[in-house]
Specification:
about 675 residues, alpha/beta, about 40% helix, globular, binds adenosine-5'-diphosphate, binds magnesium ion
């Protein structure tokens, strides 16, 4: 029932609850406490323990407003066992009144070390009598909004929670008893009305069976909706393309290397998907340098062989260009026609490319965002490949998919590995292939953490590397607040380094350059004319220059872990031993230190992304995907991994045998009809 239909709920109350996302009775029931306070006991001052929150009662024996070191209201509360200081840094005249000597007070707060023994800062206070009773239950504290007090929320929840129908079980018992979890009704009641003997610590850490039950329910709902979505996709038509008979064989014959077994495995998975009459949506994950491009190319050939067009979209011009060249060398001998499309090309060239794509003369179109613009019409698009998929928004990927009729297959590639728990939850509707092996002959990159104070040594290192015929990258700091400032820093760094290395050929590349300029600079580096390339993070993705064996990253502490890993992946692509130096400014924060340590200690992208997830939480990870997928509110993928695994297997059983339970469960947990817009 909507809250507006409940007579006892006032308009302002309904409006305030709506701000919290609470619209109906089920929402209210699932509006769970943030924490609890224990007002069931009165603790003797002598028995207070540091760090603990407790309720004490006594008489005010001293009170004063002091002005040094800053204005504060300080009072001493005394009970039969001792004294406690109460300290207020902000206070109203009414509080001075309430804390008058001789008043009996009951206070609740966290016990801290103070000047004169234990103290509480800003405790909750209320007038009391010796005979005042204590609460019988722990007091839940709810997330709230301005104008909505805790007692009001509590009352609203209490008024609906007695309705047994609202707490009905959605799941058959086997689904939760195997984990020793209580029923839904028991859990909801215990969380809104914890018993006095409940373990406060466990409750606050959401570690009780009741919390776990709800986290599990939420994860299960997510699994169910993802599965349903997955199944729905199977009912959509897509071109079925039999495995390639000729083109793939021809390309493999000409290829100067043999595929790794990991590459062979993923190619098989993709090739099988393409034979199916419903759209593939597969995510190909492989660490930087694992060789995803050739995999994409082989997939493209399967489509092309059957007369379907392929689109390959990359997030930057540098990367798109590089793909274009690579595909051209691989596919020209097979007489395959490739169109090249970017936003920056001359109108005439673009129109020619569009023409070739529309007529079907171009069998493959490689480009940037330009590919999904309205003006681009494919003759017969059968496969859309998206490199570095996390750089594109849901809508952009969708727009590209819409260019085919029937729906084209979609292959997404990423070098930013998705942590296992994320891919089991938020990405459960996609198929995932992983290249978990690097081509042979690569030497691992050695990573060093160096303080900026030792910059001179680093400069010396760069000189030596370049003098011995190797090449180096110098990556300028990321300045998120201002692109202009970032550009300025890059330009200054470039000027400084050029002066410093008058004997070396130094180049500069940044995101604001015209594509032609950028391309010229990159070409200079690829050809070995430029020895040291100063760059902003535009080189983060995809750039492949095997002769570069040294990378300096300035202000590494400002960058995301996955980004650092990507950047570092630009070196170590040849046979030479490579080094990546992370320069940091002194005085790293605790967090920055922890993050850099992860990069320093790990070379495996999956381990790095898992650590990054722990440090940052899933929000940032999901990025654009977030817009289409409801976020988990209760479950925590780090804490609740065991529940996730269980939910996954139970979801299968439920879908097979208990369709009604599935509907009921989804109705409770996904009621607001979240439309799962899919990547
Ligand atoms: P990424 O997965 O980062 O996109 P690329 O596809 O750019 O990696 O491959 C990196 C380099 O490795 C390229 O120069 C590519 O030609 C080469 N490569 C790919 N597969 C193999 C292989 N099986 N053996 C040797 N080199 C390979
Ligand atoms: Mg790549």
């Amino acid at each position: 029932m909507q809250l507006s239909e409940i007579k006892s709920f006032s308009k302002p109350l309904i409006a305030n609850l709506a701000k919290l996302g609470v619209h109906d009775q089920q929402d209210l029931i699932l509006h769970l406490p943030l924490r609890y306070i224990d007002e069931t006991r009165i603790v003797s001052i002598r028995d207070l323990r540091l760090g603990e929150s407790a309720q004490v009662q006594g008489e005010i024996v001293h009170a004063e407003v002091t002005y040094k070191p800053r204005k504060a209201l300080i009072a001493r509360l005394e009970d039969a066992s001792g004294q406690l200081t109460l300290r207020f840094l902000h206070f109203y005249p009414s509080q001075i009144n309430a804390l008058k000597v001789g008043n009996q007070l009951r206070v609740y707060g966290e016990v801290r070390h103070g000047f004169f023994g234990y103290e509480m800062v800003h405790p909750q206070c209320k007038a009391a009598r010796e005979s005042s009773t204590v609460n019988e239950q722990l007091t839940p504290i709810y997330p709230t909004t301005a104008g909505l007090t805790q007692p009001t929320i509590r009352k609203a929840i209490q008024s609906v929670i007695r309705d047994a129908a609202l707490l009905a079980e959605t799941l058959p018992a086997f689904a939760y008893t195997a984990l020793n979890l209580p029923s839904f009704a028991t859990s909801i009641q215990a969380l809104h009305y914890p018993q006095p003997d409940a373990d406060l610590m466990a409750l606050e850490q959401q570690a009780t069976p009741e919390w776990r039950r709800l986290a599990y329910d939420e994860l299960l709902a997510q699994q169910l909706s993802m599965r349903k979505h997955y199944a729905k996709r199977r009912s959509i038509d897509a071109p079925a393309m039999a495995a390639s008979q000729t083109l793939v064989k021809q390309l493999l014959q000409d290829l100067p290397f043999a595929l790794t077994s990991a590459q062979q495995k993923v190619i098989k998975e993709i090739s099988h998907d393409l034979t199916q009459p419903h759209p593939m949506q597969r995510l190909l994950q492989g660490d930087v340098g694992s060789g995803k491009t050739i995999v994409a190319c082989l997939a493209a050939l399967q489509a092309i062989e059957h007369g379907w067009q392929v689109a390959l979209m990359a997030p930057t011009e540098i990367l798109a260009e590089q793909h274009y060249k690579k595909f051209a060398t691989w596919l020209a001998p097979l007489n395959i026609n490739i169109a090249w499309l970017t936003g920056s090309q001359h109108k005439k060239d673009r129109e020619a490319a569009q023409q070739a794509i529309a007529s079907g003369q171009a069998q493959l179109a490689v480009g940037t965002h330009a590919l999904f613009q309205d003006a681009v019409q494919f003759n017969k698009l059968g496969l859309a490949i998206i490199d570095e998929q996390h750089r594109f928004g849901v809508q952009q990927r969708l727009a590209l998919r819409k260019k085919g009729q029937p729906e084209p297959h979609q292959l997404m590639m990423t070098a930013t590995p998705i942590p296992r728990t994320l891919s089991m939850s938020y990405y459960a509707d996609l198929d995932v292939s992983v290249i978990d092996e690097l081509p042979p002959g690569r030497t691992p990159v050695v990573t060093k953490l160096v303080s900026d104070q030792r910059r001179d040594e680093v400069l010396q290192r760069v000189r030596e590397a370049c003098q011995t015929g190797s090449q180096a990258y110098w990556v300028c700091p990321l300045i998120e607040e201002s692109e202009a400032l970032q550009l300025q820093t890059a330009t200054e760094t470039f000027e400084n380094l050029k002066q410093n290395f008058s004997d070396l050929r130094v180049g500069l590349v940044h995101g604001r350059m015209k594509p032609a300029e950028k391309q010229a600079v990159m070409q200079g580096f690829i050809d070995g004319d430029t020895q040291l390339l100063v760059a902003t993070t535009v080189i983060e993705v995809g750039v492949d220059v095997p002769n570069a064996s040294l990378m300096i990253i300035e202000h590494a502490e400002r960058m995301g872990l996955s980004q650092l890993h990507q950047l570092r992946g630009r070196v170590g692509r040849g046979a030479a031993k490579s080094t990546c130096i992370l320069l940091y400014q002194n005085k790293l924060s605790e967090m920055a230190r922890a993050r850099l340590k992860v990069i320093y200690e790990n070379t495996d992208g999956f381990a790095i992304s898992q650590a990054d997830l722990h440090l940052r939480g899933p929000g940032e990870y999901l990025g654009t995907r977030q817009s289409g997928v409801p976020m988990l509110k209760i479950a925590d993928l780090t804490r609740d991994e065991d529940l996730l695994h269980h939910a996954k297997s139970v979801a299968d059983a439920l879908l097979k045998e208990y369709p009604e339970a599935v509907d009921q469960h989804l109705q409770r947990w996904m009621r607001h009809g979240v439309d799962l817009v899919k990547v």
